[in-house]
Amino acid sequence: MKISYAWLRDYLKLDLPADELAEKIERTAVEVDGVIRPSEGLKKVVVGDVLECVEHPDSDHLHICQVDVGEEDPIQIVCGAPNVAAGEKVIVALPNSWIGDHTKIKRSKMRGVVSNGMLCALDELGFDEKLVPKEVADGIFILPADAKPGEPVFSYIGMDDEIIDMSVTPNRGDMLSMNGTAHELAAIYDQTPTMPTVDLHEATDDLADDDLDVTVEADEQAVPQYKMRLIKNVTVAPSPLWLQIRLWNAGMRPINNVVDATNYILMQYGQPLHAFDYDSLTAGKVNVRFAKAGETLTTLDGEERDLLDSDLLICSNDQPICLAGTMGGLDSEVTDMTTSIALEGAVFDAVKIRKTAHNHNLHSEASMRYERGIDHGATQTALDAAAAMIAELGNGTVANGTVIGRDEDVEPVTVKITLSRINHVLGTELSAETVADIFRRLDFPTTVSTDNEYTVTIPSRRWDIHIPADLIEEVARLYGYDNLPSTLPTGQPTIGKLNETQQIIRDSRKLMESAGLTQAISYSLTTETKARAFALHASDVTKLDFPMSSERTTLRLSLISGLLDDLAYNNARKEHNVALYEEGRVFFSQPEQVRPKEVEHIAGAITGSMVEKTWGTAENPVDFYQIKGIVEGYLKSLALAEPVRYEATTDHPEMHPGRTANIYVGDDLVGFVGQVHPTTAKAYKIRETYVFELDLAALIAAPKAHQQYQPISKFPSITRDVAMLIDDQVSNAAIVALINDKGGAHLQKVQLFDVYNGKNVPTGKKSLAYTLTYQDQNATLVDDDVTKAFEKVLTALTDDLGAEIR
Length: 806
What we know:
Blueprint: E1 2-4, H1 5-8, H2 18-28, E2 31-36, E3 43-55, E4 63-68, E5 75-79, E6 89-99, E7 103-105, E8 108-110, E9 113-115, E10 118-119, E11 142-143, E12 163-167, H3 178-188, E13 202-207, E14 213-216, E15 225-232, H4 241-249, H5 257-269, E16 273-277, E17 285-290, E18 296-298, E19 304-306, E20 312-316, E21 319-323, E22 327-328, E23 341-347, H6 350-359, H7 365-372, H8 379-394, E24 397-400, E25 403-406, E26 413-418, H9 419-426, H10 432-441, E27 446-448, E28 453-458, H11 468-479, H12 500-514, E29 518-519, E30 525-526, H13 528-532, E31 554-555, H14 560-571, E32 578-588, E33 597-607, H15 624-637, E34 644-648, E35 655-665, E36 668-676, H16 678-684, E37 689-694, H17 696-701, E38 718-727, H18 732-742, E39 747-756, E40 765-774, H19 783-801, E41 804-805
Parallel strand pairs: 13-24, 14-17, 29-32
Antiparallel strand pairs: 1-12, 2-12, 3-4, 3-6, 4-5, 6-7, 6-10, 6-11, 8-9, 15-23, 15-24, 15-25, 16-23, 17-20, 18-19, 20-21, 21-22, 26-28, 27-28, 30-31, 32-33, 33-37, 34-35, 35-36, 36-37, 38-40, 38-41, 39-40
Organism: Lactiplantibacillus fabifermentans DSM 21115
Domain FDX-ACB: 713-806
InterPro entries: aa-tRNA-synth_II/BPL/LPL, B3/B4_tRNA-bd, DNA-bd_dom_put_sf, Fdx_antiC-bd, Fdx_antiC-bd_sf, NA-bd_OB-fold, Phe-tRNA-ligase_IIc_bsu, Phe-tRNA-ligase_IIc_bsu_bact
């Protein structure tokens, strides 16, 4: 909201610098983005009177002008504007002047003719092109006839004003108007504002009801109020300069006297209004309803819009003519041929308007105010003020009466609060008189009981106040946040530390980095196809209603797809040895869930080699066992109470069916590890890649064993080797589990050191060799004890697994 300081002075007696006023607003009410001084940086820009204007002899569009700029002799300026003519007052940038965009104007020659300056358009002075009136958009700006040559031009076009650019928060929609801002500043500076009055003159023998028929079909929540006035015999023309200045300093483009009047009242009262060409209405009939499926409307910007059933429409004889609270229709636009105006003043539901503006990407000054709320009690006043202004500017007459489609009784809100409660919350010792004076400055009628209970009547212009807490905030604002006492918190100090989940997550990152992986951070949003890939559990996907791009439409179910994108990015840049991990959240969803369930996961992806090639070391491409070893080491560090096992699986279509294993802790599936399917790798444009993904939340919740640390034994160990022929179907895990079960109390380690499946080995068999290490923590082992324990292992292997000991 851009607030003109000159306009504010119509309401209040303010003589302090604009910067000081802006700082006070920011400290007390809403944030201020800055103070704009339109003439800042401009120099030697004056009023000029064109005495003579002739065609340039060597150009079909240039003119040679003799211009009076208040000096002894006129100066000669060459100008290409189509609307320059003798007798006009214009904006002149003198030689060595500075105009917009820090541009310096010098004496020059144009087609051989000397030009001592420049005749300026508004945008050349720094005006936004969107604010320049259309009638002078392609030429220079013509000043009023009473402008005095040689005087600085800034006062004539409002550039001597100072504009306070406020960033109004959603709860302070009342400050999206000059009236609301004036009330706020009046309270801050303890003044009584001079509020605008409405001087409306109605025709006595011309009833608006005779020409307008207004009905509201939408429910009362969607449309609490809908009213119209009729102004006849209007002459549509450009607005007077004072009105144009008010509008462009407020950030709005002047259109014509009718539209400008509605926009002026919008800025003054905060009440959106809309003017229809009465002759475009069918028999003067207007009805308000929701849109129907398949309906379209061409809005004022020339766009044909497909309407939704949540859109509120203004219709004439049931034909859409306006998107309520957002933008009017092209067919009912006020033009130069318009003679009668049907003027709308209404209150629409904030949620409905916000959805319409969002769905159609139509965010206007009107929709912004409806979204934040407007003063329900000021609708009729604003409608009357706009009708009076249109009639005055357009030499028209206002038909008698307001045609009401729907009205509401707007009653002020009453809130009660005690002095003790205010002081308790604010930590102050304010007197009853101080608090009562603050309510007086806010213009809130207040009564005080003998026990210092305030009964405060809240006018409709402050619809943000409903409960005692709101009044406490008002007292704090007006008393001054800087004046509130500050105290340090009291209580027993505690030592800050990470909880168990935070500690495990932090330790997980350290362990992954110590294993040689680099942390990556990927997008949580991806495509639906990638989101479904590598999912650990069955789940629906969560899609965005309004994604920013086609590549970011769906919440991920796995971290791996993001890591593969990272590998592809590196691979495209000739980085072929990459090892990454990511710790983050995935999003599982079921049909009955309102929101997806966020689950912590950790995943890794490795391609190429993890060993850097040197003069004495060759690269060793990563394989299944290397990445499985990283996972095993990580899971071991968690000290899980239940055993971890790996089972070959073909459940993951994106993974290689012969080189992928599910990971279980006890009977719970917690992840998988393996090679990315070659087809999937080709789709991602990556080389042979191995990945893993673990449900970190499940691992954190799993029971943990107490880690017992023992000193290294000072007694020697004894080893035994065993080689065997065994069926291919028997896994190494089953063999190791059996050896550990039968190996006795002193068995410390089982290590597989040879695997053979070739010549001299029968079909369906494989040869495995293990080293068993025995050690006692308290004494030297006796060879006979080790031999007895080892023989039990051999017997179990033969009897239970059918192994043939070699």
